[in-house]
Design brief:
191 residues, alpha+beta, 7 helices
Length: 191
């Protein structure tokens, strides 16, 4: 009897995990589709701008479900937020983090955004580790990188940065172009 109950509990946990992965994939894909829209709209345009579409799709309720955050019983769930800017961590030779318009955010600007509450220097040092890999790849030379450790540290920085960012910013982590492993998804929303 105990083994049957144990098996059912393991199966339920597995199914919940798969449900979370599926919902996260769908949600992130919908959000990322907003990047297909123009960043600015012209007077004669019939479509919305990227940020309007992104904000229409953005759902704190889905994110609460994915992160396991519970609201107090006497509170209601927030249904909509306004995202002012989307920051994307995308390690490359000439950039580490940029906004939704592909404007590179330098260390001074990032420090200003987070109010000095984040290890900006360590973050940019981590980002520079990719430079020799990018150069080798550009010249068609072989390169070796411990991607698992690189992404583990990068995601730690991303999670710490997310905690320091004001709520009107969203943060995405994008794996470098040179990483052809399947250790992590190509891009992921940091919640």
């Amino acid at each position: 009897m105990k083994s049957w109950v144990s098996m059912v509990l393991k199966m339920a946990k597995f199914l919940q995990s798969e449900l979370n992965k599926t919902i996260r994939t769908l949600y992130e894909s919908l959000l990322w589709m907003a990047f297909l829209y123009p960043t600015e709209i012209k007077e004669y345009s019939q479509c919305n701008s990227m940020m309007i579409v992104y904000n229409k799709i953005k759902s704190p309720i889905i994110e609460s479900f994915l992160t396991g955050t519970k609201d107090a019983k006497d509170c209601y769930a927030m249904r909509q937020v306004h995202i002012k800017s989307i920051l994307v961590i995308n390690p490359d030779y000439d950039e580490l983090i940029c906004d939704e318009t592909h404007l590179v955010i330098d260390d001074e600007e990032l420090s200003r955004i987070v109010g000095g509450k984040f290890d900006v220097k360590g973050f940019y040092e981590w980002g520079r580790e990719i430079h020799p890999i990018v150069i080798a790849a550009a010249f068609g030379e072989p390169y070796d990188m411990e991607w698992g450790d690189y992404h583990r540290r990068g995601l730690e920085f991303a999670k710490e940065l997310r905690k320091c960012l004001p709520s009107e910013y969203d943060l995405w982590y994008h794996k470098p172009f040179e990483d052809n492993t399947c250790l992590i998804p190509e891009r992921q929303l940091i919640m």
